[in-house]
Design a protein that fits this description.
Structural class: mainly alpha
CATH superfamily of the largest domain: GntR ligand-binding domain-like
CATH architecture of the largest domain: Up-down Bundle
Largest sheet: 3 strands, antiparallel
Strand order of the largest sheet: 1-3-2
Distance between the termini: 43 Å
Radius of gyration: 19 Å
Order of helices and strands: HHEHHEEHHHHHHH
CATH class of the largest domain: Mainly Alpha
Oligomer: single chain
Length: about 230
């Protein structure tokens, strides 16, 4: 992947090279190209992007700060593994941030915000009808990020951005629970209605239930997978 291609993916014409590489690596991690527990070898990644190992080292530090990569002394950098405790912690934090974002968004929603959320849910419905699971997962994240942006709370946006990579991993893991893809837009539609109608308390409660159910099902499935035969 070339540097210009990475910039195209990021939608940023003037990012630092280290950030470009970090974002491309993050995409590879959350898309499952690098599975949890995979060792990230600086020399191999440097060759992949045709950059120096120093650039890769800086990019990996960025991903360490986002919680997607863990450095182990004398062993190197590894994609984080996702255990039951991680799922619980990510879920609780995500749920709290998204519920607060939904409440604040409902209080300050305008016509542009209404159109943005309604357009995303319409696109989700189309992706579900087309059977495009990957597109639907991306739109799911776009929706929640849009709600956070509409909230107008700068520090909330910053914290949510730091959790973004781990949240994307969470969404990829929970995506398999939806056999009927139409369940995903159906789950979002009441939340959109509450936000666009300015019902802050309903939006808050719907956002909490939205995240919590996925976490409980994922933790339950992991427990079954670990149970001795």
């Amino acid at each position: 992947m070339t540097s210009s291609k990475v910039s195209e993916i990021l939608g940023d014409t003037h990012p630092s090279l280290e950030r470009e590489i970090a974002m491309a690596l993050r995409a590879a991690i959350v898309d499952g190209e690098f599975e949890p527990g995979t060792r990230l070898i600086e020399l191999d990644i440097a060759a992949r992007f045709n950059v120096s190992q120093g650039t890769i080292r800086a990019a990996l530090k960025y991903l360490q700060a986002q919680g997607l990569v863990a450095y182990r002394p004398r062993r190197g950098n590894f994609v984080i593994t996702v255990e039951k405790t991680d799922i619980y912690e990510i879920s609780v934090l995500r749920e709290s941030l998204e519920a607060l974002g939904a409440r604040l968004a409902a209080k300050r929603i305008d016509d542009a915000g209404r159109k943005q959320l309604q357009d995303i849910v319409r696109a989700m419905r189309k992706a579900a009808e087309d059977g495009n699971r990957k597109k639907l997962m991306e739109l799911d994240f776009d929706f929640h990020r849009a709600v956070i942006d509409i909230s107008g709370h700068r520090r909330l946006m910053e914290i949510y951005e730091r959790l973004e990579g781990q949240t994307r991993m969470f969404l990829r893991l929970t995506d398999r629970f939806y056999n009927d893809l139409n369940d995903i837009p159906s789950l979002h539609e009441p939340l959109v209605a509450a936000i666009t109608e300015g019902d802050a308390e309903a939006a808050f409660q719907l956002a909490i239930r939205h995240a919590d159910a996925d976490a409980e099902e994922l933790i339950s499935s992991m427990s079954l997978a670990l149970r001795p035969a």
